[in-house]
């Protein structure tokens, strides 16, 4: 031991008794804040950053989201604008009707969910605010290819996998810290 | 630590040095037997430690290299992921260095929101440290308690930023989201809950004779030794130096806030345990002041706001969500260099940023508190028993990914 001024130990019966009493208090009245997932699941706030998609009609294909994406999860895929304003896949070698104007080329973002970190930088850099958010976050895929949806697959927001469970919201509680109450 | 000294190889484990040396080499780690992702190379004389050498780098993630090859804005998620229990401080330190180069001054309300997020994060970081120290000493109760009590604070961050840990809340010029409605009330009840819990923490943990017996007079570092080792943060303050970057060079809203820098006198493991509880109490005091005194106004600097297009301005009016101007994507700051210092949960983060007019940083360098607290290892545990090593290691609140960067 180093020759330092030794501190006196408080070690006493009282301290041990108090520790045991506190332990016993929590044995009788536990203050668990565990969420019984997936029987119950949380109803997340609207500002929760979960899966998101893009509004096909709003998007202008400017590639800003692809440029800002920190993990490079976003890829811009080429599309053509249809007469209704929605975009269609590019068909290579499709026969053009004589005299018809060539379809306007554009690009749309697709997110690789295996890379996305949900920082929402793409969301905020979008000059036309075209991204649509959801607060679904608890989703896993069975194989690697499913993490990279096609554009059509990406347009559909994933459904909440635990939507049948009892939805609860966390409330601060003086005894438990967090108490889960049924969602309004 | 003498770098030229012979480093003991893993093949020497258990071997006896020839010719009269009675010590043996003992490897602790690196496969996380309570050492974290690092190896503690020790020499033992019986069960007395005669030499400790920390072997780090197992979770090196090249955060500097990655950041030097990306636009400036993309470094925010990278630095966050290095300091996972302490994300807001890493984010804040980087943005402060970047703002000095870009010459942006955030408005007062954004400064207060930054301090608010930082203090909530400090509480979660200290609770994390307390919990890990608990499991090191075999007290799984405190481990569960501290990690459970982190939850209400993480829930507050989720309400504020929309993510639990990796918030990416702070951007050059301000913060990204306004404080939501009902946040103040929720924060106040969370703080009250934490204050009530301190009594139970004292009974089970801090004032428990078993914990005292294992930590008092263990791993003593006096004031002068702590200063010469270059230790930072709560570990330095536990040795009796009341140095805190929040006081020494105030950033965010700290110059307007009244708080104390707690310090202890003995510098042993027990003091390093108590100082974290004291700092949580101070953070609670700071959060109360921030919520009371927070000024009204914009949460983003005018120089950034004026670059938003009409759609983005409308979103800001409606949702109080700051969208990014295209400038964030195409930042090319003029050649300059800057430093930033932030008092994170484990100590001071130092940031150095150099630009040369390109769209990537020319040099991106940061020193994390855990890296500076590494100096503890080679010095502190020598002379104590092997059974004291968890009590010393746990009390330092060392986070390997943060040190390896």
Sheet of most strands of chain A: 3 strands, mixed
**Number of helical stretches of at least 4 residues of chain A:** 4
Name the beta content range of chain A: 15-25%
CATH architecture of the largest domain in chain B: Orthogonal Bundle
Radius of gyration of chain B: 22 Å
CATH class of the largest domain in chain B: Mainly Alpha
Integer average pLDDT of chain A? 82
Q: What's the arrangement of strands in the largest beta sheet of chain B?
A: 1-2-3
Quick one: biggest sheet of chain B? 3 strands, antiparallel
Count, helices of chain B: 17
The H-and-E topology of chain A, N to C, reads as HEEHEEEHEHEE
Amino- and carboxy-terminal Cα gap of chain B: 21 Å
Shape estimate of chain B? globular
Features:
heterodimer; A: 184 residues; alpha+beta; three-stranded mixed β-sheet; three-stranded antiparallel β-sheet; 4 helices; 22% strand; B: 405 residues; mainly alpha; Cytochrome-c3 Hydrogenase, chain B; globular
How is this structure best described in words?
The complex is a heterodimer of chains A (184) and B (405). Chain A is of the alpha+beta class and 184 residues long. Chain A is 17% helix and 22% strand. Chain A has four helices and eight strands; from the N terminus they run H-E-E-H-E-E-E-H-E-H-E-E. Chain A has a three-stranded mixed sheet with strand order 1-7-8, with no helix packed on it. A three-stranded antiparallel sheet of chain A has the order 4-3-5. In chain A, strand 3 and strand 4 form a beta hairpin. The longest helix of chain A has 16 residues. The model of chain A has no long low-confidence stretch (mean pLDDT 82). Chain B contains 17 helices and eight strands. Chain B folds into two domains: 46 residues, no CATH class; 329 residues, Cytochrome-c3 Hydrogenase, chain B. Helix content of chain B is 47%, strand content 12%. In chain B, strands 1-2-3 form a three-stranded antiparallel sheet. In chain B, strands 6-7-8 form a three-stranded antiparallel sheet. In chain B, strands 4-5 form a two-stranded antiparallel sheet. The mean pLDDT of chain B is 86. In chain B, helix 2 runs antiparallel to helix 3 and helix 3 packs antiparallel against helix 4. In chain B, a hairpin with a 2-residue loop joins strand 6 and strand 7. Chain B is mostly helical and 405 residues long.
């Amino acid at each position: 031991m180093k020759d330092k001024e030794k501190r006196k130990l408080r070690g006493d019966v009282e301290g041990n008794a108090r520790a045991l009493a506190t332990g016993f208090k929590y044995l009788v009245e536990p203050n668990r804040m565990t969420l019984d997932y997936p029987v119950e699941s949380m109803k997340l706030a609207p500002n929760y950053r979960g899966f998101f998609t893009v509004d096909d009609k709003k998007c202008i294909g400017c590639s800003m989201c692809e440029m800002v994406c920190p993990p490079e999860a976003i890829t811009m895929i080429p599309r053509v604008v249809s007469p209704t304003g929605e975009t269609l896949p590019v068909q290579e070698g499709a026969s053009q009707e004589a005299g018809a104007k060539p379809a306007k080329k554009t690009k749309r973002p697709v997110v690789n969910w295996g890379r996305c970190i949900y920082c929402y930088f793409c969301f905020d850099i979008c000059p036309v605010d075209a991204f649509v958010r959801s607060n679904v976050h608890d989703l896993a895929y069975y194989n690697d290819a499913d993490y990279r949806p096609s554009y059509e697959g990406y347009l559909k927001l994933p459904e909440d996998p635990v939507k049948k469970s009892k939805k609860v919201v966390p409330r601060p509680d003086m005894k438990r810290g967090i108490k889960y109450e049924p969602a309004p | 630590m003498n770098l030229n000294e012979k480093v003991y190889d893993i093949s020497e484990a258990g071997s006896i040095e020839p010719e009269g040396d009675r010590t043996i080499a003992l490897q602790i780690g690196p496969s996380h037997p309570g050492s974290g992702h690092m190896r503690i190379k020790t020499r033992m004389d019986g069960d007395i430690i005669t030499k400790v050498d920390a072997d780090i780098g197992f979770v090196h993630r090249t955060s500097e290299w990655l950041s030097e090859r990306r636009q400036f804005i993309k470094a925010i998620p990278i630095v966050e992921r290095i300091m996972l229990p302490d994300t807001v401080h890493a984010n804040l330190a980087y943005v402060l260095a970047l703002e000095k180069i870009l010459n942006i001054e955030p408005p007062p309300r954004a400064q207060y929101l930054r301090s608010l997020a930082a203090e909530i994060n400090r509480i979660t970081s200290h609770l994390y440290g307390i919990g890990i120290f608990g499991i090191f000493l075999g007290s799984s109760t405190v481990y569960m308690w501290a990690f459970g009590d982190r939850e209400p604070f993480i829930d507050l961050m989720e309400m504020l930023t929309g993510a639990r840990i990796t918030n990416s809340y702070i951007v050059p010029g301000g913060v990204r989201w306004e404080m939501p409605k009902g946040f103040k009330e929720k924060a106040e009840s969370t703080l009250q809950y934490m204050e009530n819990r301190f009594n139970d923490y004292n009974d089970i943990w801090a004032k428990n004779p078993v914990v005292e017996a294992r930590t008092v007079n263990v791993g003593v570092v006096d004031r002068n030794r702590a200063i010469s080792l270059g230790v930072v943060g709560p570990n330095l303050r536990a040795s009796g130096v009341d140095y805190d970057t929040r006081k020494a060079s105030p950033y965010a809203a700290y110059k307007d806030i009244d708080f104390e820098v707690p310090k202890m006198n003995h510098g042993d493991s027990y003091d390093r345990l108590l100082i974290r509880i004291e700092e949580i109490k101070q953070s609670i005091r700071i959060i109360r002041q921030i919520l009371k005194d927070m000024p009204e106004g914009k949460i983003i600097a005018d120089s950034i706001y004026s670059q938003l297009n009409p759609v983005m301005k409308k979103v800001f009016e409606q949702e109080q969500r700051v969208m990014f101007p295209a400038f964030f994507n195409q930042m090319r700051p003029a050649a300059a260099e800057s430093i930033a210092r932030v008092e994170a949960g484990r100590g001071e983060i130092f940031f150095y940023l150099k630009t040369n007019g390109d769209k990537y940083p020319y040099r991106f360098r940061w020193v994390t508190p855990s890296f500076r607290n590494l100096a503890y290892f080679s010095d502190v545990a020598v002379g104590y028993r092997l059974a004291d090593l968890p009590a010393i290691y746990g009390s330092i609140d060392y986070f390997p990914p943060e040190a390896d960067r």
